[in-house]
Write a structure and sequence with these properties.
Elements: H1 10-25, H2 30-45, H3 50-53, H4 64-87, E1 92-93, H5 98-104, H6 112-131, H7 135-139, E2 141-144, E3 148-151, H8 152-176
Parallel strand pairs: 1-2
Antiparallel strand pairs: 2-3
Helix pairs in contact: 1-8, 2-6, 2-8, 4-6, 4-8
């Protein structure tokens, strides 16, 4: 499955996209997978030139810098969604156009240190909350504008699988640039 989630096709493709994400995660603990991202990035990015980090996989695709900033913004969105689910009864969870965010928020211009710092802070705060949720809290539901009802636990699973998708993407970008793992 190609992990593409374009905004204009999101409602129609949502079920397949979610199924593919959950298949990728498999039986792994979402909290453990989420905790792996920062050390994985620290190791993977060590010694890589800024020009390489800014080179997209192919024209029209994201660079590593853009992927990392997307991961940070995704943590921002998922953290907010879960906080809404925990504090309100069946809140609306708005979808968003990730490619428009990348363009409007100038992901391409962000420094690596800024993107990593943002991701690190958001991930630490989110993991601290998510590790301590009760079974009842994990079952609380919000209504996603494209995917329908989703529990806090389900959102955490999707975020973990999302990390795995983008780890693969970073490896593909590096492979296209001739960078060895």
């Amino acid at each position: 499955m190609t992990f593409s989630n374009p905004a204009g096709n999101a409602p129609a493709a949502a079920a397949g996209y979610v199924r593919a994400l959950l298949d990728l995660l498999g039986p792994r603990s979402p909290i453990e997978v989420l905790g792996e991202l920062q050390p994985w990035l620290d190791h993977r990015l060590r010694g890589i030139a800024d020009a390489t980090l800014r080179r997209p996989e192919t024209p029209g695709k994201w660079s590593v810098i853009e992927v990392i900033q997307h991961l940070a913004d995704s943590d921002l969105v998922t953290g907010f969604r879960i906080r809404m689910v925990l504090s309100e009864d069946r809140p609306a969870l708005q979808g968003y156009d990730q490619d428009r965010w990348a363009c409007e928020f100038r992901y391409r211009e962000v420094s690596l240190s800024q993107a990593l710092d943002q991701l690190r802070g958001l991930r630490m705060a989110n993991l601290h909350l998510w590790k301590h949720l009760s079974p009842a809290q994990l079952e609380r539901v919000g209504l996603h504008s494209e995917r329908g009802p989703e529990s806090a636990g389900h959102l955490i699973q999707l975020q973990a699988a999302h990390d795995l998708v983008h780890r693969r993407q970073i490896d593909r970008i590096f492979a296209a640039a001739g960078v060895r793992a």
